Amino acid sequence: MEPAERPTWGRYALAGFVALVAATNIAGIFWARLVEDSPTVLIALSSRNRYLALSLGADLPLISYWVIGPARIAAAFLICHAIGRAYRTTALSWFTRYLGVDQTSLDSFQRGFDRASIVIVPFFVGSNLVAALSGVRLMPLTRLVPLLAIGIVARLALIQWFAAIFDEELTTFLEWLQRYSWWAVGASVVLVLLINTRNVRGGSAR
Q1: Which residue range(s) make up the domain with 38?
Q2: Rounded to whole angstroms, what are the CA distances from 160 to 48, 53, 152, 176?
Q3: What is the pTM of this model?
């Protein structure tokens, strides 16, 4: 059910989401340079699993990993939760129109969320769609915050574990990346533009 009146704070949540999308695109373009020069900046811009793992491979201090990583993931989740809470089903339509989520996936996530939110939230702690669904379903913060914390800690611990296991491979890749980082930046620019263009065109066609 749609709220009778949109809360004012919903606009601030939307502004925050736009800022997060911009930051993610910057990370998507310049990750190959940032991972060696400023890994803390990289994971502050985007908390994607690959950036977290590569930053550890680039000797990111663990204190930065465990402070910036959780803060970035939590910020994205709570902003999307707020958007879902403020805009309800309208927010979900934005995911299918402009963010590349197909209706089948959306329906699947909705069914799964209704049946097992206690598992869905921690497991998909990095999903903007799940975060928005938690807001649409008006999940209480007293329930949401502990599940979010569990999911963040588990995800970061798992990535740290994998980074330690594949430390040699990460080091080899980063050494290669140092030689070809600007080529990687060029390819990333094209990829980011293609993804954003596809999402916008797909949304306009619906």
Answers
A1: 9-205
A2: 13, 7, 12, 22
A3: 0.87
